[in-house]
Write a structure and sequence with these properties.
Layout (H helix, E strand, L loop, with lengths): L3 E5 L3 H11 L5 E5 L2 H11 L3 E5 L7 H7 L7 E6 L4 H9 L4 E4 L4 H27 E2 L2 E2 L2 E2 L3 H13 L6 E4 L6 H10 L8 E5 L8 H6 E2 L11 E2 L1 H4 L4 E5 L6 H13 L1 E3 L6 E3 L3 E6 L3 H6 L5 H7 L2 E4 L9 H16 L6 E2 L1 H9 L5 H15 L4 E2 L22 E2 L8 H4 L5 E2 L11 H15 L4 H7 L4 H15 L1
Parallel strand pairs: 1-2, 1-3, 3-4, 4-5, 9-16, 9-17, 10-13, 13-16, 18-19
Antiparallel strand pairs: 6-7, 7-8, 11-12, 14-15, 20-21
Length: about 475
Amino acid sequence: MPPKILIVEDTASLALMYQSYLIPTGMKTQVAATGAEALIAISEFDPDLILLDVMLPDMNGLDILSSLQGDNQPQVIVLTGHATKEMAIKAIKLGANDFLEKPIEADRFRITINNALKLKDLKQTVEKYQAKYENGRYFDLIGSSAVMQSVYQIINSAASSKATVFITGESGTGKELCAKAVHQASPRAKKPFVALNCAAIPKDLIESEIFGHLKGAFTGAIANREGAAGQADGGTLFLDELCEMDINLQSKLLRFIQTGCYQQVGSEKEVKVDVRFVCATNRDPLIEVQAGRFREDLYYRLHVIPVSLPPLRDRGADIIEIAEALFSKISKEESHPYKGMAEGVKHVFMNYNWPGNVRQLENTVRNTLVLNDAQWIELDMVPALPNTPNPAPLTPQPGKTALVNNNMPQEAAAVVNPISNSLSNMQEIEPLWIIEKRYIEQAITLCQNNIPKAAALLDVSPSTIYRKIKSWEELQA
């Protein structure tokens, strides 16, 4: 819808000239020659921007400006042929966005209006975002970290469009909550949100689950059934674990996404729906494409607005915010007299790697509350966390050098052969990356190729090891 501009100008020739300046922009205009007409037009025309002359036959234009109240008031550009510094300052204080002195050139006129309208759009976007984001929460997502703020901003920007959102992240990072936030922030919020886990449905039934079927279409089809696509009409269809979908069904999904039309199993009739797609996977979709398990054309059709959810270990103090929220929520469910966590509990939570992410944290919180009736949660009440590094410092053997920090646990120190400090000649010197590579590879081998476990023992993030493996491959290429 084009912006609406109210021109408040008592000189008819100038009002017509201003209208002619705006004809190429496609903006809708209306003229008011007096202050009284302007006040009526503001309420009835509901302009996005007002071009306001100061000297009007029945009142001062600044009185109209001062009467504008409310959060959604229009932008105002003050026009005058008798500009003074004091008048400009007063106009800005009263809420004007700009101040133009007559005569006004067409280009300057249009640029000023465009800038004011852009500022209005920006203010509305910020207000909309602030209304949704409160106390570290964005709908059901929790966290105030910079990385999550970035996620919230992407969701907020993408929500109003129909563009497909493609969410990636490790298992347990909250991909379905992210998908729900996209839906809740969109104009479709009052319409259905339908989630379908492609990994949880047998390959032979997933087409029926998505598109529905007619009675008798296959053995066991005893009645007509509307699929997820039909249920989500007007709303959002969330396809979780999309990379698990059978390659043969992906072509039908691609056609559905392109046309909005599908056929129920056993029917020749096409059904058309209005659906917004949100997809998620805990795999690397490009690797799945390269391996031939995921169609490349489907990937590029769906990968429009990517959202990467960070693992819990990379979210800093968000861990405590989420834990507090989970303790409060689950304590109500379990009728538990919870009041708070001890600092020792917070310290352990902050320093643990959380390979299972938020799902693992939630299970830990529930276990703690169910098995302990105390109001304050102490460290000895928290169940043992698997692969938790031992904080005791490592005492190196005489004449040996460790390749990791002094807080590496004893268990980790035992997984590799120590490296001698003594070198008999220059030919024995090896590049540091080769030594580090051998050390880490031995740790991974002794952990039975479980990289997250090896990373926990080495006191680094699994993503660090994955990056190092990639860099080694490049060095050896």
